[in-house]
Design a protein that fits this description.
With about 450 residues, the protein is of the alpha/beta class. It has 3 domains: about 210 residues, 2-enoyl-CoA Hydratase, Chain A, domain 1; about 140 residues, no CATH class; about 60 residues, Nucleic acid-binding proteins (OB fold (Dihydrolipoamide Acetyltransferase, E2P), Beta Barrel), CATH 2.40.50. The protein contains 14 helices and 18 strands. A 6-stranded parallel sheet has the order 9-5-3-2-1-12, sandwiched between helices. Strands 14-15-16-18-17 form a 5-stranded mixed beta barrel. A 3-stranded mixed sheet has the order 4-6-8. Helix 2 runs parallel beside helix 3, helix 10 packs antiparallel against helix 11 and helix 12 runs antiparallel to helix 13. It is elongated and about 105 Å long.
């Protein structure tokens, strides 16, 4: 009954959001905010907001833009969604001091109405590498021609100045709000969302498919307190993806997850490090879907973990330990752009792991390997009677104590070492009993109960 009640409570809890949305009144205006680098996560977010606007029969969608750029593939998907919208879309570069750089310029240009706040700017839409570096000439020409053709087609569709918009791509031109208005790049300048709504009232918008819509924005407020205006927010999962898609966080997840698996491999049975490590690596791979990952870097990190595992089982801090640290460093350096060989993107914040993260992780791994080797050497010095596999047969005839009951295989302590042991007659010998080593097969001792004498 307890399980049943718990299950029903979970079901009801999962239905609460849909119940709340069903009871909430439809909004005349939906506001979508793009305030970070353009990536697949934001493309899904915009698509969901547009779907909501069409489902609720909204009169207008406002896309507030403040972005340095992002991925070409995500930008294209977002532009396509805006161009096919059944609801009027106003793209708005805001607040004051914001900018619509690179991919953001395409999104602003795609709106039925394009607006900017004072002291904002738009442009610099030349394709570059993921880290902002220049592309090789041939790739740059292809990417630039493709992007300029897209910008020109958007300009022709929306009736804007195609030459100035294309110059954003071909010459990395950038314009202030006044320059954009004077050059017919945007339609108007607005101080805030409510001022934008006031200026849009009564305008007729040509929608996809040839239909028209006349905007009625009287009485709507998209500045607190809101009236007939709803903000489409990122879901908790999208915010979580946004967090782990930070290159430094992704790098830490990959490295710490690998170390967790390494600890589990070195000490089987701990379970917790292995489970946490597997979860971290899974999260890192989820984040890869929003980043221009270079799989060569992932392979180098995997090789580094394997080398570290070998070093832990051969604790001498030799070639395997040093090679592991080198592989980790180069793996992080090659993990993201500008070393990736993927398609060019628009400029955005540098997609690379911080040198501090690389140094910290590599130093931690080095310290772990050094500590393991030191403890192993110290253990050898403290145990003058330590028995190694090469002279295992020297324990024959010695008396030991059963640490884990032999049933028929268990563990015995003899010659200051723990050994895997098996009773000669495969009988049960309880823990704590004294046994005599009869013979050795590989690294398994054959024992029998010791004589009382």
């Amino acid at each position: 009954m307890t399980r049943l009640l718990f299950f029903l409570a979970l079901c009801i809890t999962s239905l609460l959001p849909s119940i709340a949305s069903a009871k909430s009144p439809s909004n005349a205006v939906i506001v979508i905010t793009l305030d970070d680098a353009i990536d697949p996560n934001h493309a899904r977010y915009l698509d969901r907001g547009m779907d909501r606007a069409e489902k609720e029969g909204a009169r207008l969608v406002i896309i507030r833009v403040d972005t340095p750029g992002g991925l070409i593939s995500s930008m294209r998907a977002m532009v396509q969604r805006i161009l096919e919208s059944k609801v009027p879309v106003a793209t708005f570069v805001a607040p004051a001091g914001a900018h619509a750089g690179s991919a953001g310029a395409f999104i602003v240009a795609a709106g039925h109405i394009a607006a900017m706040s004072p002291t904002t700017n738009i442009g610099a839409a030349s394709p570059v590498g993921g880290g902002g570096e220049d592309l090789p000439s041939t790739i740059k020409d292809k990417a630039t021609n493709d992007a300029s053709a897209l910008m020109r087609s958007i300009a022709e569709t929306r009736g804007r100045n195609a030459d100035l918009l294309e110059a954003m791509v071909t010459r990395a031109a950038s314009y202030s709000a006044k320059e954009a208005l004077d050059g017919n790049i945007i339609n108007l300048i607005a101080t805030d969302a409510n001022n934008l709504l006031e200026q849009l009232h009564g305008r007729t918008i040509q929608l996809a498919g040839g239909s028209q819509a006349t905007l009625d924005t009287i009485g709507i407020s998209c500045v607190e307190p809101l009236r007939q205006c709803g903000n489409e927010k990122l879901t908790w999962f999208e915010r979580f993806i946004r967090f782990i898609a930070d290159p430094n966080v992704t790098g830490l997840l990959l490295s710490l997850g690998s170390l967790g698996l390494l600890i589990e491999f070195y000490s089987p049975g701990l379970v917790v490090p292995g489970v946490i490590g597997a979860i971290m690596i899974a999260l890192a791979f989820i984040a890869f879907g929003n980043l221009p990952v270079n799989w060569a870097g992932v392979g180098l990190i995997a090789i580094a973990v394997i080398l570290a595992a070998i070093e832990l089982h051969l604790p001498s801090f030799g070639v395997f330990g040093v090679s592991s640290i080198i592989a980790f460093i180069f793996g992080f350096l090659f993990l993201f752009a500008p070393f990736t060989g993927s398609a060019p993107d628009f400029s955005a914040p540098d997609i690379r792991v911080s040198p501090w993260v690389i140094g910290g992780v590599s130093g931690g791994i080095g310290a772990l390997l050094i500590a393991t080797g030191f403890l192993a050497l110290r253990g050898k010095k403290k145990s003058p009677f330590r028995v190694t596999p090469s002279d295992a047969r020297t324990v024959v005839g010695q008396i030991g104590r059963v640490k884990k009951a032999l049933d028929p295989v268990g563990t015995v302590y003899v010659a200051e070492e723990d050994w895997s042991a098996e009773a000669v007659d495969r009988s049960h010998i309880q823990g704590g009993a004294q046994v005599e080593v009869v013979s050795v097969e590989g690294l398994t001792l054959k024992v029998r109960p010791a004589k009382e004498s």
